[in-house]
Amino acid sequence: MRAEFDETLVTGNDMIDSQHKELISRINQLLDSCEEGQGKIKAVKMLDYLLDYTEFHFEAEEKLQEEIQYPGIQEHKAKHAEFKQAVKELQEMLEEEEGPSEAFVEAVKKNVVDWLLNHICVWDKQVAQFIRE
Questions:
Q1: What does DSSP assign to residue 97?
Q2: Are 35 and 41 contacting, i.e. CB atoms less than 8 angstroms apart?
Q3: Are 63 and 18 in contact, with CB atoms under 8 Å apart?
Q4: Contact 77/62 with Cβ under 8 angstroms?
Q5: Which of 39, 72, 81, 132 makes a 20 to 30 Å CA pair with 100?
């Protein structure tokens, strides 16, 4: 399952939407590298790349929330922390394996793709709604 950026994920904030598109692109690159059997080193690099961009994106979102004095910022930050922990667990899982296994790919789909799509649709859209109001 590849993540696709579509109208259901649009928050209306150009910066956030463009970063979400990039984040989804990086997730898909990770999945592609795993499914094409490009090996552990490539998967590790792609996962590191994803984590770096995630850090950048979450910092931008949190800075925006601080600027607008978003009342749900602490809960939102907690959700971001959950995601970062999930990615770190994927890194550990990958380190223990010879390469990206089917179990690893399934974990990426569940803990990254599904989580991100849900996060955008629920949490990020709440922030966007707050901005519009």
A1: S
A2: no
A3: no
A4: yes
A5: 81
What tokens appear for 63 in the block?
A: 């800075």
Cβ–Cβ < 8 Å for 111, 54? no
Q: For the chain, 133 residues long, give each residue's pLDDT as a single digit of tens.
A: 678 899 999 999 899 999 999 999 989 988 888 888 787 888 888 888 888 999 999 999 999 999 999 999 999 999 999 999 998 899 898 888 877 888 888 999 888 899 999 999 999 999 989 988 8
Tokens encoding 59: 């910092």
Helix 40-67 / helix 73-96 crossing angle, nearest 10 deg = 170
3-class secondary-structure state, position 95: helix
Side chain identity at residue 10, one-letter code = V
Q: What is the DSSP string of 15-81?
A: HHHHHHHHHHHHHHHHHHHHHTT--HHHHHHHHHHHHHHHHHHHHHHHHHHHHTT-TTHHHHHHHHH
* Look-up of token digits 């979102």: 61
